[in-house]
Structure formats: C-alpha cells, structure tokens
C-alpha cells in the first residue's frame, strides 16, 4: 500500500488517498490541505496507523488457530 496526494480540478488544495497494490482506494481524506507536502504527511501517517492496526500481533497465533 502507498499514500498518494491528489488535487481535484476546479478545487483548491490537496487531499491524500491510501491505495493498495492494485490501485484500489483503501481510505481517502475529506480534509483539504493547503500544500501537497501537508497532504502527503497526513496520508503517510494514516497509512502507518492503518498498517499497525492490520499487522498481526507477534507471538500470538492467527484467530481460529491454536498452538500445538
């Protein structure tokens, strides 16, 4: 996954979007940022948070599996 920034023609400012490897949108900002850099900074922070939330906890088996 990656964070990208984009602008909408006819609107001022930038928004961020998190996309997967297939280019599908995972999450998108509703906030408009004044600069490309600010949008990317927030998008990368959201991506980091999303990645941490979806990473399995170390030392614990996946749900539905028991240790032998």
Integer tally of domains: 1
In total, how many beta strands? 3
Shape verdict? globular
Sheet-strand content, in percent, reads 15-25%
The structure class reads alpha+beta
**Average pLDDT, all residues:** 86
Helix content: 25-40%
Q: What is the strand arrangement across the widest sheet?
A: 1-2-3
Order of helices and strands: EEEH
Distance between the termini: 33 Å
- Please give the largest β-sheet: 3 strands, antiparallel
**Low-pLDDT residue spans:** none
The number of distinct helices, counting runs of at least 4 residues, comes to 1
Give the radius of gyration.
Answer: 16 Å
Structure characterization notes:
This protein is of the alpha+beta class and 68 residues long. It has one domain (2-54). Helix content is 28%, strand content 21%. The protein contains one helix and three strands, in the order βββα. It has one helix at 36-54, and strands at residues 2-6, 15-19, 25-28. It has a three-stranded antiparallel β-sheet, covered by helices on one side. β1 and β2 form a beta hairpin. The longest helix is centred in the middle third of the chain and has 19 residues, at 36-54. The chain is globular and about 40 Å long. The mean pLDDT is 86.
């Amino acid at each position: 996954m990656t964070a990208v920034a984009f602008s909408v023609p006819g609107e001022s400012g930038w928004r961020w979007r998190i996309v997967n490897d297939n280019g599908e949108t995972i999450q998108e900002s509703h906030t408009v940022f004044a600069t490309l850099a600010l949008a990317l900074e927030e998008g990368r922070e959201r991506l980091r948070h999303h990645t941490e939330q979806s990473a399995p906890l170390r030392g614990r088996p996946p749900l539905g599996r028991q240790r032998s």
